[in-house]
């Protein structure tokens, strides 16, 4: 997940969007962007009198500490020094920064990576030239030439793809298969850094219990969730790149899931059994409870969703994950990010909490993300935690595991899962897995079958994810390798055996 995506998503403010469109003739006095991204910060706004000026075209604010200026963290939290001394930076400079026009116009997003006006993209072009390999047949193992790095940028997509213009021309028909997609990636990357305001990152609030959510596709979901209208394909690609993570989970465990046991629905009978248990907890019947003593009723514990091998998904702005809670009005969640890279791109939260008897794994706990959602992050391997019994016992009614692009069968990462997957099967809880391609998922299933000797039940057949990211991403190590997040999804769990009696 690129820092620019998180920064753009965390800097959007619904109040500023509405006020800027309603009063475009003058700057407005509104709350700082940093107060709009964290529910914890929102609760503290009533006691704060600090105000900043927003122009018609706001841009992400910066924190100033001493003589060093840096961007806000993705969670939108300010340091105490900044909150107590908002005049640390010249007000004229603040106004100038926020009223600065975009770097790129919407009709001027295509630029070659090497000559891009964005320094970050120029550095990315240098990285691709240093690591990318030319795909021309002459450089293949059976070709006549030695491997060569890419150096020539296609004039149509603006990305370094071949070692020379001659090889590009000779292999042009093969390049045409991905050229349009590479150009789209080019323009989307420039759009993220264009300096424009991102209204598509304004998310809908809680869902009414009486209003059903239609999960047929992205369009019907955003409409029934009462999102602001997104009429541009590029805006849709940007917003789905973030929402694909929580909505992929929600679309499977929700009672109105697009996956079913009918022909082509991809859900198996064993999958219906497992997911029905979770849905029973997440969609509890009306209990007649109230706020007084007579209205007290016993409540089920929150559903624990263990996100294993967490990387980019753990650094998403928290208002993205809150969308999962919104589609379950009476459900409760505890998201647990586990993995050695689960704190990537979260430098503002270092150092990690010390490991104590009450917090043996140094977990970072965010218990005020939303009234019905809590998030914990643990920097460790799951199998290490599982053996200690930290989260024991596991219950199929309250537990679910998710792995985003784990690469179970990939030669470079399969060894990291060899000890974890057998332990997951012991819990008998559903395990949701996503993949970049159909081949990627088939390879993972085959690896699970060989590693676990077939001791698992397939809950959902592998196939394209209804709520995959609509935006394509480029592998900087191989410019020919393009993918989109959570393209496919499948699910499995440990095999269950039913004991029966037999009269002898």
Q: What is the fold's blueprint, element by element?
A:
Layout: H1 3-10, H2 14-22, E1 28-30, H3 39-43, E2 52-54, E3 62-65, E4 68-71, H4 80-84, H5 91-98, H6 119-131, E5 152-153, E6 160-162, H7 165-170, H8 172-192, H9 218-224, H10 233-253, H11 269-282, E7 303-308, H12 318-326, E8 333-338, E9 364-370, E10 373-378, H13 382-388, E11 399-403, H14 414-417, H15 420-427, E12 431-435, H16 438-451, E13 456-464, E14 472-474, E15 482-484, E16 488-494
Helix pairs in contact: 10-12
Jot down its keywords.
single chain, alpha/beta, 8-stranded mixed beta sheet
Task: Note down, in words, how this protein is organized.
The protein has 16 helices and 16 strands. It has 504 residues and is of the alpha/beta class. The strands form 5 sheets. Strands 9-10-8-7-11-12-16-13 form an 8-stranded mixed beta sheet, with helices on both faces. The protein has a two-stranded antiparallel ribbon with strand order 1-2. α10 packs across α12. The longest helix has 21 residues. The chain is globular, with a radius of gyration of 25 Å. About 15% of the residues have low confidence.
Can you describe this structure in just a few lines?
The chain is α/β, with parallel strands linked by helices and 504 residues long. It has 16 helices and 16 strands. The longest helix is centred in the middle third of the chain and has 21 residues.
């Amino acid at each position: 997940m690129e820092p620019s995506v998180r920064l753009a998503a965390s800097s959007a403010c619904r109040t500023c969007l509405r006020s800027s469109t309603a009063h475009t003739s003058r700057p407005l006095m509104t709350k700082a962007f940093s107060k709009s991204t964290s529910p914890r910060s929102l609760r503290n706004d009533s006691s704060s009198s600090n105000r900043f000026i927003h122009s018609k075209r706001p841009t992400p604010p910066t924190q100033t500490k001493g003589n060093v200026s840096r961007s806000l963290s993705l969670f939108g939290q300010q340091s105490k020094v900044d909150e107590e001394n908002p005049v640390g930076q010249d007000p004229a400079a603040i106004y100038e920064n926020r009223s600065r026009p975009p770097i790129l116009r919407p009709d001027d997003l295509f630029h070659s990576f090497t000559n891009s006006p964005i320094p970050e993209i120029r550095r990315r072009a240098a990285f691709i030239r240093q690591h990318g390999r030319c795909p021309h047949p002459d450089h293949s193992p059976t070709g006549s030439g030695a491997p060569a790095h890419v150096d020539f940028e296609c004039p149509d997509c603006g990305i370094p793809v071949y070692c020379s213009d001659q090889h590009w021309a000779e292999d042009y028909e093969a390049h045409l298969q991905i050229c349009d997609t590479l150009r789209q990636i080019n323009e989307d990357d420039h759009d993220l850094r264009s300096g424009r305001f991102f209204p598509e990152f304004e998310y809908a609030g809680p869902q009414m219990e009486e209003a059903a959510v239609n999960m047929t596709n992205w369009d019907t979901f955003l409409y029934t969730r009462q999102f602001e209208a997104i009429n541009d394909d590029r805006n849709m690609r940007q917003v789905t790149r973030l929402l694909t993570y929580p909505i992929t989970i929600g679309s499977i465990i929700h009672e109105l899931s697009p996956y079913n046991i009918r022909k082509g629905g991809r859900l198996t009978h064993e999958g219906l059994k497992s997911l029905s248990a979770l849905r029973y907890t997440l969609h509890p019947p009306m209990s007649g409870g109230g706020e007084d003593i007579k209205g007290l009723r016993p409540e089920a514990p929150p559903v624990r969703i263990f996100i294993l091998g967490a990387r980019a998904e753990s650094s998403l702005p928290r208002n993205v994950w809150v969308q999962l809670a919104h589609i379950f009005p009476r459900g409760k969640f505890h998201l647990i990010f586990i993995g050695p890279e689960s704190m990537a791109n979260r430098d503002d939260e270092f150092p990690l909490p010390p490991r104590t008897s009450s917090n043996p794994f140094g977990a970072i706990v965010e218990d005020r993300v939303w009234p019905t959602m809590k998030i914990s992050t643990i920097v460790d391997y799951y199998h290490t935690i599982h053996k200690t019994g930290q989260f024991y016992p596991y219950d199929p009614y309250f537990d679910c595991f998710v792995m985003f692009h784990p690469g179970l069968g990939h030669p470079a990462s399969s060894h990291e899962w060899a000890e974890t997957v057998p332990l997951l099967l012991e819990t008998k809880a559903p395990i949701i897995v996503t993949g970049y391609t159909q081949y990627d998922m088939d390879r993972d299933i085959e690896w699970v079958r060989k590693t676990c000797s077939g001791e698992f039940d397939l809950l959902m057949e592998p196939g394209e994810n209804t709520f995959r990211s609509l935006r394509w991403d480029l592998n900087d190590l191989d410019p020919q390798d393009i993918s989109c997040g959570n393209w496919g999804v499948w699910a499995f769990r440990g095999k269950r055996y039913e004991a029966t009696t037999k009269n002898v």
